[in-house]
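@channel sequence for tomorrow's demo:
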Amino acid sequence: MSIRQRQGIWHVDFYAPSGERIRHSAGTADKKAAQEYHDRLKAQLWRQHKLGEQKPRSYSEAALRYLEACAGQADYDSKVRYIAYWRQHLGHLMVGDITADAIFDGLPTHKTYKHQGAQPLTPATKNRYLATIRSMLNMCVTWGWIHHAPKLPNFAEPKKRIRWITRAEAMSLIQHVPQPWLRDACILGFATGMREAEIYGMEWSQVNERARTAWVGDDQTKSGRARSIPLNEDALAVIRRRKGSHPRYVLSRNDRQIRGGDDRMFGRAVADAGIEHFRFHDIRHTWASWHVQGGTPLMVLKELGGWETIEMVQKYAHLAPSHLAAHASTVTFWSQGQEAGKENGNEDCALVAVNY
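structure tokens (generated this afternoon):
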């Protein structure tokens, strides 16, 4: 038989026109579905042998080449994790057989936490799963492995909040942080707007105290673009204080590299300071908000923060309405007309408002 059942799962087993033996799982317990898969695969192999069509590529082949192409990217570890997840659900399919329905059927809906049990996944988390498989399939189109990729619309995400605190609240927060390394990480965040991973990954070789700058490499940034970071007095104070604490990294914990912050410790400090709904990443939002409130142009802020597009910093524009006020007088006419009328002794011009 060309299809056989083993432990409840159907397998295909036949010889292709080229003489190659095809033997693997159909990935289903449904005999009819397995037979359809067998017939479709056999027809593909016939067209490949007789008509010169390209060999069907498996999910595993696509995943391997995709990860090779993404090697070195800042989010490479995340891509590996998502590709491994999709392999459980799509690994038995050829790339050309992966449909939107198969992807959405395999999309996770919950995540189980040790103390909270199963919690529904947010739309943003689901979209990250979709982004990886979408990217891989689009690359398959580029490679000529498939003619087109299935359309995978994102889930609607709630608008991102802009949470920032005042300078007085920031001072109180820092004073309530018990560990010096986390306290210095907060100060660097408020002073430079660096992301958490950039702060903990900063090495002494990336700091030029005399030039009052630091830089992060393209392998450390979210955008994949290296950037220079100016250091103000607050940041320099941390740099000077941390000298000698670790031979390689500016910030360290128990003489070791810090690979991630302590959300629980940070959360307790936030609560003790009387602040609500504030995460470590909100320090970056606060830094950007302070800049805009202080008059820093959005294009300058974009470069300082390492954002890719101006749209990413436009969300802070409302915090500085005064930056538009100086341009409002460019198109005034009413008050200017009244003043001109008074100077020329023409009361009709000055009182035109009551005669229209």
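heads up for whoever presents: The first helix runs from residue 31 to 51.
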